[in-house]
Specification:
Multidrug-efflux Transporter Regulator, Chain: A, Domain 2; DNA-binding; mainly alpha; globular; 2 domains
Amino acid sequence: MQSNNSIGLGTDKDTPLYTIGVVAQLLEVSVHTLRLYENEGLVIPFKKDSNHRLYSANDITRLKCIRDSITNKKFSIASIKTLYAMIPCWSIRNCSEGERENCEAYNSTMNPCWTFKHSNNLCALQECRTCDVYKEHNHCDNIKETIKNNTRQA
DNA sequence: GTTCTGACA
DNA sequence: TGTCAGAA
């Protein structure tokens, strides 16, 4: 018997395993809503060659956070985007002054860094889905921790 | 049967 | 957010 999963790969919370239909049932939202969250840049599911989406356990954790924010805390999608946009990616990735000046993400207040192209900076080298700036905030609560760690005293 | 994209209510 | 169309 395989203890991990049906395809026998060593699995962890980052392994994309769940189809959009399964996730929709799990979170009690429509498939359409999950695609909306993706289009709005709230979540980045893995895409198979077939272009079908696969979600990991961490993606589901993230989606639960998003749902809780919207349903219980009355956040809008736009407000969640703004919150994500406040994550100091430039600090986490140690971007230079020059890189910051030329970076759309650094200068955006409305959109998370992972919604930009990143064709001409160090972010072009890594998939946002696997970047700490994105990954470390699957729990919405972690944003506060990040801000704490990046705040200097005057 | 499930999911994809795009469009419209 | 829901639903429908046409395709894979």
